[in-house]
Design a protein that fits this description.
By secondary structure, the protein is mostly helical. Helices cover about 75% and strands about 5% of the residues. It has twelve helices and two strands. It has a two-stranded antiparallel ribbon with strand order 1-2. Strand 1 (about 175-180) and strand 2 form a beta hairpin. Helix 4 runs parallel beside helix 7 (about 190-215) and helix 5 packs antiparallel against helix 10 (about 255-270).
Length: about 300
Amino acid sequence: MMHAGATTTWWVFFHVLVVVLLAVDLGILQRGKQAVALGTAWAWTIFLAALAFGFAIFLSHADGRQQGLEFFSGYLIEGSLSVDNLFVFLLMFRSLRLGIEEQRRVLLWGVLGAIVMRALFIAVGVTLLNRFAWIEYLFGAFLLVAAVRLLRHKADKAEASGLVRWLRRSRIGGFIETGGPDNPTIRLVFPALLFVILAVEATDLIFALDSVPAVLAISRNPFVVYTSNIFAILGLRSLYFVLAGLLDRLRLLHYGLAVILAFVSLKMLLHQWIDVPVAISLGIILVTLAVFAIASRVIPDRKAAAKL
């Protein structure tokens, strides 16, 4: 661990960096009713990923190679699990017929809320693990259940449909029809805006119950766990617009996420008998993501073919 002075300094520095990145994000992705340019979203996503990689290198030099590897492994886990989260957001927004401007606004509040929730989750998780050793096995079992749930995951992401139906059928005010008859969209005002933001936060909360214990299986350093989570969350808005046209092509990725969750679950449950180095864990995560991403493109989609 870094000595106390450096730790305080870098906690402050990191949060200043977060504020700056959020401000730049607003300037890049928050442009009224215009659609987000795919090239701009790609550029910002790649920049944030490169910045996270640079931060991992910094940690390696400042606090040892182990901390850098733990950070990057945690960043990859959180980022990859966020892809499934973004699919649910996409389905929710499409079902509600939200325009680009509304999607950006809801996602911004979703990111801000996610930062606060992750900080609380990580603080509680690290405290419990440090005080009660048996909590580690509870987290491991929870991750194993999450892996099984992902394996049984429906391709149509039906879990969002009940919430969407309730929002559309309720008598909540604030859904204002805009756009022409060929492309009708919804503009949100209070209280509908508040309910949609709460729906996004609730969805993120459910995913945080999987992702935070998964990262805690890789590292117990609060600074590493927190910064890796926040770096991944900061890229959610740009990643959403990058993946909006690609998510249908990543239809097998949830199987890869299930494999990753199962791996970190077993790593946590069996750590007293089997010690898996972080470098090997990072390699397994990268290979798993690559295999299932490629498989999504190579293996034919039988459902799509049946509709032709």
